[in-house]
Design brief:
This protein is 38% helix and 25% strand. It has a single domain, classed as FAD/NAD(P)-binding domain (3-Layer(bba) Sandwich), CATH 3.50.50.
Amino acid sequence: MKDKPIVIIGAGISGLTLCLILLKNGVPVILFEKEKEINQPGAGINISPNGNSILFNLGLKEKIISLASKPISLELRTHKKGIIVAKQNLNNSSEKFYNYPFLQMQRNDLIDTLKGAINKINANIIFTDYSFENFSEKNGSVLVHFNNQKSVEGSLLVGCDGINSSVRKIMLPNSKNKFSGIIAWRGLVDMKKLSSQTQKLSTTIWMGKNSHFVHYPIKKHKVLNFIGTLRKKDWLDESWHKVGNKKELENDFKGWNKTVEEIVKNIEIPYKWGLFERESLPNWISSRAVIIGDASHPMSPSYGQGANSAMEDAIILYRSIVAFKGDPYSALKKFQKNRKKRSENLQRASKFNTKLFHLKNPILRILVYSGLYSISRLIPFILIKSRWVYKYNAFNVRLK
């Protein structure tokens, strides 16, 4: 793999993280993004200890801390009366158990941070307005083709181009995304528009019948991010996300707690997502190509692990490449061996959380909520339950 660059498709979190770690360690790399500008406005994201262990080790601690909000606690509440079902201290416990904090920030702030760190080292390796078309593999390289009639030769091709990955469609033409039956509303609200009572709330999950609503502060408590999900029969739009209708959003959460209704009322631009899922893929690799992040293992947002697992993929792929210099296929096999099971477990855990937050049967809800209430008063069960997720450090976990 000497001299020829690793070619990355997609300037999302996985692509930029991989680009940065390769660049910092002298591995030739070049990144292509189909959009004219690298910009992902709107959504907030959770960066749990496993994600911050990566960002801090990449030398981004001060920048991330300056942009992110640090939640004090997590509360699970009933959707109408707002009864606290469970409460968990997040950061004192998180740093005590896992050495890294639990942070929340706007996705685009993380994108800009990663992009800025790359440009400080080399401002000439990210190319925008390049739409991937296909690739061909030869004995010593991979030839990547774009819709602008340009091509580039590299040592490896890494598809970091999201759930609708064009790289995946070439590698696995029979793989298809399936609508999960759940849609998500997302958006941002200026904190100044909200009541003092709502402004004081930390991360809160309101749980209802076939639906839930999450909100938390970002941008140093200046902005509130929310995501509300509910079951719908179908998703008719060609795009997997779009600007939504505020009246529809209000109707979807009508009759919920006054805090939820207040947040919904003050949103300016609601975005509407169809949540898609995919059966576990049999393979993520070919001889000189690999897909990572949402391209290979999209997951429900209910565990907040999409961004974190994407960064984990990037670091483990880098470590695998270093371990097998000159032998790309062995490097890709090692990467897949070390990431596939964990990613599938995260997918399952995310689906489980969605079911937990969407309990339909009222008797089951009473039983489950009572159990959560009792346990949470005795032990920090949310962090303990998530130990296998949060303790993972991609830089020092032993590779199999």
